[in-house]
User: Which sequence fits this backbone?
């Protein structure tokens, strides 16, 4: 099994209102490797947001994060700098620092919100590329994320169209013939991480093509990247340690106070005798 | 920028005591693409563990997890099956389900512990391949991991030799000339995720070659994958919600009880008058 990835040359600087699917199509058309059935185009969310005009002025950055936040998971203020990092669940269900609000590679004085609906953005691009090239092309929209217990960041999928986001091996068997019961590789995330290695933040190349996993490409009706985030009852880390501890402290205090009060009340006559 | 990845054919089933570096070298030698300076060989941790004889009998699985555990982060029992998932920090600092103890693709009745020191394992393989081929080859050892807030699993790096695990962009600037202050892509993790896409759990191919990021390959003295896990004071998620809540409840109860007792005591004479 062989896979090739490359950064797609010739995407211009994107501004609000640009027809992103056309610009990516133009770059693909100029690429001597062409477009083949099963190619996966990985698009950095930043240019999707720019095309959608998701700019807000930098003064509003904290307000913008708040507006994008469904739920604060954890926040931590750096005592040295006074700046606060907020890990939040955003309206897409993604748990991410600063709700994905981005201040790098944006026009001076502005920050950028995530696309409104990255799965829909991916679908629009995929539909346009499929129509233009007559090829079954998949599209992923990627964003850079930190991780709970690992330093640094990796690119992960926030939008998907025509790509299987999970490679479901749960019905298959290992080489010993035993069922692979719990294995559900998130191939959409792995593809976005792979693509980051050829796009690169400092190079300014925002789109990559992945060739060699055509088996993961299919109908535009396949479930999107919205199916990746795990929130709700199955989320064992729905708040940071300090926040969960504070919840527990409050509940414990109330319970302890009530019992302490009763005990103190009960023993008081003895003590005052 | 172009990157190629492929699964390396011809690695036999590995058993305890096998010379893994020789077997990978033999497979590389038979590969018509050869070995070039800057190639990165990604080795599934499972075969490193097998070569190192890290088998324990399946009956001891829970004991094995306990022995590999430095600290329980969260545990959750499935009420339907009665089985408990334990997310723990293991002796390598990695936060992972079941301490990385693995029951798939292992001989019947056995489970497999992680390699003793995956950075050292990577270094031994890299040194042997460099000596054999006279090429500057990097080696990563990968393992499959779940994530806090995302379904499914991705492959990440647990061992590294001769590969820059982080691509440090913190000194560089974005296309607008502003410093990329917080960007530290964990390229070792991204390379392992990329490699998983050509190895595949169900195919039984445990080694991949990545070609095209020679800039990430260097001295065998580069910091290993042991530098990736983030634990200690900077870990905002050092326990699961329920565990952190319980810690807080205990502390809150004690505090509330003391204050409640005092209040109850103080008011008792009035109430009994």
Assistant:
């Amino acid at each position: 099994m062989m896979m090739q990835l490359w950064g797609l040359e010739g995407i211009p600087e994107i501004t609000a209102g640009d027809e992103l699917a056309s610009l990516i199509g133009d770059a693909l058309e100029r690429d001597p490797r062409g477009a083949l059935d099963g190619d996966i185009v990985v698009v950095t969310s930043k240019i999707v947001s720019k095309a959608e005009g998701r700019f807000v002025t930098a003064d509003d950055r904290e307000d913008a994060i708040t507006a994008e936040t469904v739920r604060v998971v954890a926040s931590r203020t750096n005592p040295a700098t006074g700046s606060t990092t907020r890990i939040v669940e955003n309206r897409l269900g993604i748990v991410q620092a600063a709700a994905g609000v981005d201040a790098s590679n944006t026009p001076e004085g502005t920050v950028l919100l995530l696309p409104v609906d990255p799965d829909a953005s991916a679908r629009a691009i995929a539909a346009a590329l499929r129509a233009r090239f007559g090829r079954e092309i998949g599209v992923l929209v990627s964003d850079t994320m930190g991780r709970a217990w690992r330093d640094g960041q990796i690119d992960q999928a926030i939008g998907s169209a025509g790509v299987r986001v999970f490679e479901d091996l749960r019905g298959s068997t290992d080489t010993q013939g035993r069922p692979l019961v719990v294995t559900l590789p998130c191939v959409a995330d792995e593809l976005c991480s792979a693509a980051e290695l050829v796009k690169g933040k400092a190079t300014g190349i925002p789109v990559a093509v992945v060739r060699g996993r055509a088996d993961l490409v299919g109908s535009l009706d396949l479930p999107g990247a919205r199916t990746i985030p795990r929130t709700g009852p199955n989320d064992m880390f729905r708040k940071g340690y300090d926040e969960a501890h504070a919840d527990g402290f409050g509940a414990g205090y109330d319970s302890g106070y009530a019992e302490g009060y009763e005990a103190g009340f009960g023993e008081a006559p003895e003590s005052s005798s």
In short: Residues 236-263 of chain A form one domain. Residues 241-272 of chain A form the longest helix (32 residues).
